[in-house]
Design goal:
The chain is α/β, with parallel strands linked by helices and 283 residues long. Helices cover 43% and strands 22% of the residues. It contains ten helices and twelve strands. The strands form four sheets. It has a five-stranded mixed sheet with strand order 4-3-5-12-6, with helices on both faces. A three-stranded antiparallel sheet has the order 10-7-11. Strand 8, helix 8 and strand 9 form a beta-alpha-beta unit. The longest helix has 25 residues. 32% of the residues are buried.
Length: 283
């Protein structure tokens, strides 16, 4: 037990995700009493509680949250090791499309793991705005696309990505200017449309200070203190500050991130990469 048996860690993660011993036991195909006893046993060994219990649900303590985070990493590594050894060696190429704001933040760790497990699969990444990826999916130029949901494109839900207004740290309070100078992606961007709609609903006049398909371009404009920009939270660099109601700016709705597949992607390399993306990004 002191070596943190992976089966016990799996139980801890299952209880944390389910919020109850009964639901976790059902997911693990174990009895609730067995799960409860195992959790109690490791709490006794550790000398501290992992969960706060009440009559209906359980919640993680700070120590429980820390151990659960480690548990997720260890279980993911076990799955990765198993897949690398057991799965048949696959070859081929996968072309995946992704907009700039997701490419720099969501994909690197996933692609790194996939490349380690499948070294003979060539990965090609095409960086374009989400709306520009749609025709590439339809004509099979792309196999997969990790993108913001667009009209007429079906895909498996990955996550809701929050959006924030951002401004340069330490710069003049540019968000007080009227009309408000904004830096946005081109027409067709879901984030752009949401931001403009939010400003219109709040009655805040604005002007297009900068428009570019490049995330780096938007960040450079904001970093220079010349505009504010609506960005996916995952793509906000450390040197920029997030703004919100305290600065008089309207709340932005989250972006729905999906994994879309082309008709020509029914091949093992595409299946395995799609599986890796779903396992690592879904939530």
């Amino acid at each position: 037990m002191r070596k943190l048996d992976l089966d016990v860690l799996e139980m801890i993660v299952a209880v944390a995700d389910a919020g109850s011993f009964a639901r976790a036991a059902e997911a693990l195909h174990r009895s609730p009493s067995a799960v409860s006893m195992q959790i109690k046993a490791i709490e006794d060994v550790l000398g501290k509680p992992l969960f706060v219990r009440n009559t209906r649900n359980v919640a993680l303590t700070d120590d429980g949250r820390m151990l659960t985070d480690y548990g997720r990493q260890m279980l993911a590594l076990r799955e990765e090791a198993w897949s690398a050894v057991v799965r048949p060696e696959i070859r081929g190429r996968v072309t995946i499309g992704v907009p700039d704001d997701y490419a720099s933040s969501l994909l690197p760790s996933v692609l790194r793991k996939f490349a380690a497990a499948h070294p003979r699969v060539e990965i090609r990444v095409i960086g374009m705005p989400s709306h520009a990826l749609v025709p590439l999916l339809k004509d099979n130029t792309l196999d997969l696309a990790c993108m913001t949901r667009s009209h007429g494109v079906s895909g498996e839900f990955l996550r809701y990505e929050p959006m924030d207004w951002v401004a340069a740290r330490g710069a003049t309070q540019i968000w007080k200017e009227r009309p408000l100078p904004i830096a946005v992606f081109p027409q067709g961007s879901a984030g752009r449309a949401s931001a403009i709609h939010a400003l219109q609903q709040a009655g805040i006049p604005f002007r297009m200070s900068y428009e570019s398909p490049s995330l780096l371009g938007l960040i450079s404009m904001v970093d220079a203190g010349l505009a504010v920009a609506p960005l996916a939270r995952c793509s906000i660099p450390a040197q920029l500050d997030a703004l919100g109601a305290a600065e008089g700016l309207p709340e932005l709705p989250p972006l729905e991130v999906i994994l879309a597949r082309s008709a020509g992607s029914a091949r093992p390399p595409c299946d395995f990469l799609a599986e890796q993306l779903l396992a690592n990004l879904k939530g």
